[in-house]
Design goal:
The complex is a heterodimer of chains A (656) and B (214). Chain A is mainly alpha-helical and 656 residues long. Chain A is built from 26 helices and four strands. In chain A, α3 runs antiparallel to α19 and α8 packs across α12. The chains are: A mainly alpha (656), B mainly alpha (214).
Chain lengths: 656, 214
Amino acid sequence: MVWFLTALALLLLGGVLSLVLSRSRKTASLVGAISASAGGAVVLLQSFDVLISGQSQSLRLAWSVPFGSANMAVDPLSAVFAVVIALVTMLAAVYGTEYLRTHADKKNLGVSWFFFNLLTASMLMVVAARNGVLFLISWELMSLASFFLVTQEDEKETVRRAGWIYLVAMHVGTAFLLVLFLLLGKDSGTLDFDRLSTAAAPSWVFFVLAVVGFGTKAGFIPMHVWLPEAHPAAPSHVSAVMSGVMIKTGIYGLLRMLTLFGSLPAWWGWTFVGIGVVSGVMGVLYALAQHDLKRLLAYHSVENIGIIALGLGVGVLGISYKSSAMAALGLTGCLLHVINHALFKSLLFLGAGSVLHATGTGELDRLGGLLKRMPITGATFLVGSAAISGLPPLNGFVSEFLICLGAMIGLSGQVSLTASPLMGVLVVGGLALIGGLAAACFTKALGVVFLGEPRSGDVAEAHEVGRAMRWPMIVLAGLCVLIGLTAPLWPVVLQPAVAAIVPQQSSIAAEAARPLTGVVVGSCILLGLVVVLVQVRRQLLVRRRVEQAVTWDCGYTAPAPRMQYTASSFARPLVLLFRLFLQPRDDIDRPQGLFPKHAVLHTHAPDLFRRYVYEPLFAAIVWTTSKLRWLQEGRIQIYVLYIALTIFVLFIWKLR
Amino acid sequence: MNVWLDTLLVLLILTNLHMLGSSRITACIRTVACQAVLLAAISLLAQPDGIGLRLLLLAAVTTTIKAGILPWLLQRAVREVGVQTEVEPIVGFTTSLLLGLGLLGAALHVAGRLPLPNDAGTSFLVAVALFTMMVGLLLIVSRRKAVMQTLGYLAMENGIYAFGLAFAIEEPLLVEMGVLLDVFVAVFVMGIAIHHISREFDHIDTDRLAALKD
């Protein structure tokens, strides 16, 4: 635990130091990034130690806050999350040194690094806290630090708006958590995690509070509305951290809460499966209809959180039907997907940041042809895209495969599950649909951004980003491949973490490793085949002339880059196929006459939950509160009178 | 019990009523200073176990600040701003006095029912303390000039001080030092703020600040 505290101290010290030294932008960046990396490295070492030895470490200090104690521990479950947090923030910090240099002119970089380190430290505190008060304080710090990072470019109207949506969403979530912890501590009189009691209310109350509270952070549909606003608004390395790891603290919270309950009702599992399917499918559908690269990635976070929720659902169903194999496979898949999503989503956000950095725009229909200009960014983005689409031999496939395996156990009738075929269909079918749509979506993103010809002038002059931005992407892409190729190891590595939620025999991990070995062998054959094909192509081209020519251009005499497929035209067939869920809208100004001079087409897919749920809800709140507007008189005397009357009434009421 | 203590308490009540009925700002400032002196005397008398050096020192410090420095600051603010020295009440003087009497009754009633750890002998002191706080609040609510609001806060602070005395232990004096510091800063800031408000708007009538509400 000493090392963990050292890391926290390093992070906070570095943040403050960076704030103090903010006069020199270079020093502030350097101090911030070095402290973030050093803190991350220390946490990484300690967490690996916990994961490998399976021994949790803890620390308990007195703290003079009511119900509070500085009670911290790193068990294998926390360690999995701590590894992810440390790894991604380290790489993002390195990336940030270069990204911020040009992207935040005239901004105080010390402030940015201070909040970055504070965010890292508070995320680590969240996964290590073993006391409700400490947990909530860390949780709130995490929300606030990320709020200030999101609103870094606060001169833009859209960013300010995104910041407010984010802040409101986070606090609504925290309000639910506050009630959750109050109820948990009500009977036991303490908020230490090991002594919480679930007797104060029916268990469904805890479940609903936790799903709404933690789900808002995680981005479950329909609590996801802040994600597509906040992620694009934040600087790219911060988006990578927020989308890659911060939303996972919601999953951590749910997992930690599950450990408090002895037996889990089956309907909890069904709820998670339902949330998973809806979030996954809707997330990827919305992503398909987006025109902005970072917004598209943000919706993919919703999708991946859906996959994680599916894993969680299979795990909970396994626990409630006493099938330890199903439980273990589902939860292992869930945890592994947490790790995997952190890797490839931060990779993709960093890639999007590089594109933004090089071209100044994230709008898909202005980009194009970047693969030749930015080969490293393009190649790593390709790896990330394949991984997020769940394609072997990359890591995304492994975790989705484990979840599928868990669901198959339900299907195969080993478990006396009355509705097992339904679950199998939901989980396996849902995962297949999500994977297919994600592949389509990333074909669109990758194709439009990196292939073809540049669609605007700035893009044509883009060039590869510098070393500090390239290496984090290369490392993340390498890790994606590594996890894909070492798949059989992971159920074993994650076994102690899963055991924290459901006690299980280690034989299941070994059993799960067997089909994964087959997957790896298949992947290796695939890779070998690719290498062979590349060699064959090279052999065939030897001593032949290779030249570039225009593709077939439909008979136009002067083809222009703007005639290429656009992002929205590529996605159009799929969007129309699912128009029931997406309700796409077109603003069209049709060409008129023989020689039309003017024609406009805009395609939108507004977020339905935002339009039909949140906007009416908040309009109602504004309407109600506007009825109380007369209370705001504007006179100090009246305000003091309100306070005095309140105190007086309370006083009299107490002495009644 | 102690006749002197009761006399001082009655005097304190009278100063409160005087503040409610007075139309001159300077008179009100002087009355608050008087209250501070009275309270210092009460604090010396209310101690059951004699007067120690520490107590004397604390009384001296509080008296200097509340009867000396703060009134001086306020007088200076009034002089520099150059406002008319009328109080400009929202609620008239007669009504204020009547309300004050009502509050006195309420304070006596409440003090009788408060579950206090001490013996019943101090309940009159508690009543007066509550009354002083209520008068402070009433002044804040019912007067226009920002200076009068400051005076209201000071009166409230005096009430809190008296309430602390009612428990007849030395610890409240430490608490009192904290409160005093807050009030000192508040008055200091308000003195400056009043000055600036008057420079910007040519008046210090807080009800005309209503134009600033959104």
